[in-house]
Design brief:
Immunoglobulin-like, 498 residues, 43 strands, rod-shaped
């Protein structure tokens, strides 16, 4: 027995035996937890347990314990085995060794490849970044998260989709882009190579200017909007608006748009003329064609005037009604009204006022106004009153020795009548002689001195004529209509002429 023990103690140390065994997987994926477990037939006899990889000790335990690779990497691939110092007999220890087991740690997924669609984006357009990698079929359900970067700045982090859509890129967004794919447990993370994305700028072209209202038809007092646009052009575009004759700059705007507006809040007649706009995105300034602005002036306050032949207006007179708005843009439609009833319309195609002639009757007495309308607005003039008097009476001297002597008779409404001699004196005779063109007044005889006496049915038109002697006609003198006068009181007159 002693001899056998001695032989055992003298035998080589470290030869593997079945007393100590190793348990571990042959294959794993990076990021996995790998447990290497060594155990003996009697673990309580193990005094020291040592783990080896590729011949190098990697861990030592003074009791039974497993070696754990918490986050496996391909570099963890290799040959693993264990050694154990165990108590053999009394004070005698022996070393046991396991067989070697090979571990292969496989790549969970390759480093992603980042691509951009389109490859050469233009300013203002969208771009889709893709972070592409491939999981093995037996790990296809592993959840990956994706992050995207540009020049050290994070664009999107821990994104569940491998695609990232950027709504619009601009010239200054050019730079190096890359992505990262990571397991949700953060155990495996890999980045793509950096890719340079060059965002292209398209020079402006097709600069065009239009107006609101359209076709440059501005209205005085209203707003005018200049709209400058380009057919092509990306990035920040600087728009400016100019007046053609003075080259005056009306305004500038820089926007990330192919269209910009400039408002002129209140248009004046002086704004009429040619205008243009320019656009530039640092590739050269482009000018639009000239747009001519016509300022139409609305009707404001038309003026109605009535021209009459004398100081008094009589039935049968011809009067002229003239309506005009001196500033309104043509064409203008003028309408004439008598007591809100239309009496005529006249259109003026090229400016200026318009006249309307009216032969007066008794019904034409009253208020008049005119209306002007040039399609922008209609306005009425102030009211003008037209007061029509009875027509002037005609006068004659009857039954005298000549036409400048006799009984005084006047005509009214086609009928002849006499004049009462109440208050009749040389002032009245002077006016009668002047009206008849018979020279100076001489006498104021009674009418009965010139028989035959007026017929009984012939009217007496004037009871009292109150002249001051300066009037041109008897009709201009103040008069009192008849109330108690007969033909025995008819007035007469004698003038110098004969």
């Amino acid at each position: 027995m002693f001899l056998w023990l001695l032989l055992l103690m003298l035998s080589p140390v470290g030869i593997w035996s079945d007393w100590l065994s190793i348990d571990m997987p042959r294959y794993a994926y990076e990021g996995d937890q790998v447990v290497v477990r060594c155990s003996g037939e009697e673990n309580n006899k193990i005094k020291r347990l040592m783990y080896y990889k590729d011949g190098s000790r990697i861990s030592t335990y003074y009791s039974t314990s497993s070696y754990v690779i918490s986050n496996a990497r391909p570099s963890d691939s290799g040959s693993y085995y264990c050694k154990a110092d165990r108590k053999f007999f009394l004070f005698v220890d022996v070393t046991e060794e396991t067989r070697s087991t090979w571990l292969t740690v496989q790549e969970l997924f390759p480093a992603p490849v980042m691509t951009a669609r389109p490859l050469l984006p233009t300013e203002g357009n969208s771009v889709t970044l893709s972070c592409d990698t491939q999981l093995p079929s037996d790990r296809s359900k592993t959840q990956l998260q994706y992050s995207f970067f540009r020049d050290g700045h994070t664009l999107r982090t821990k994104w569940s989709s491998s695609e990232f859509w950027i709504s619009a890129l601009w010239k200054e967004d050019s730079g190096y882009y890359w992505c990262e794919a990571m397991t949700s447990s953060h155990s495996v993370s890999k980045r793509s190579h950096r890719s340079y994305i060059h965002v292209q700028r398209i020079p402006v072209s097709g600069v065009f200017m239009e107006t609101q209202p359209q076709e440059g038809q501005a209205i005085e007092g209203k707003m005018l909007v200049f709209v400058c646009s380009v057919v092509e052009g990306t990035g920040e575009i600087s728009f400016s608006w100019h007046r053609e004759d003075t080259r005056e700059c009306l305004g500038r705007k820089t926007v990330r748009s192919q269209r910009s507006e400039l408002e002129i809040p209140v248009i004046r007649e002086s704004h009429a003329g040619g205008y243009y706009c320019t656009a530039d995105n640092n590739h050269g300034l482009i000018q639009s064609e000239i747009v001519n602005i016509t300022v139409r002036i609305p009707v404001s306050h038309p003026l109605l005037t009535i021209s009459v032949p004398g100081n008094q207006i009589f039935i049968g007179d011809m009067v002229e009604l003239h309506c005009e708005d001196k500033r309104a843009s043509p064409p203008v439609l003028y309408s004439f009204y008598h007591e809100n009833i239309s009496i005529g319309n006249i259109s003026v195609p090229s400016g200026g006022g318009v006249s309307f002639n009216l032969s007066l009757t008794a019904e034409h007495n009253g208020n008049y106004f005119c209306e002007a309308n040039n399609g922008l607005v209609a306005q009425r003039s102030e009211m003008v009153a037209l007061n029509i008097t009875e027509p002037p009476v005609k006068i004659r001297l009857m039954n005298g020795l000549h036409r400048c002597e006799g009984r005084v008779e006047v005509e009214k409404n086609g009928h002849w009548g006499t004049v009462c001699d109440d208050g009749w004196d040389m002032n009245e005779v002077t006016v009668v002689c002047r009206e008849l063109g018979c020279g100076a007044a001489k006498h104021t005889p009674a009418g009965m001195l010139y028989p035959p006496v007026a017929k009984e049915d012939q009217p007496v038109f004037i009871q009292v004529a109150m002249c001051n002697g300066t009037e041109d006609t008897l009709a201009e003198c103040e008069q009192v209509e008849t109330f108690d006068c007969g033909h025995d009181e008819d007035a007469g007159a004698v003038c110098e002429g004969g």
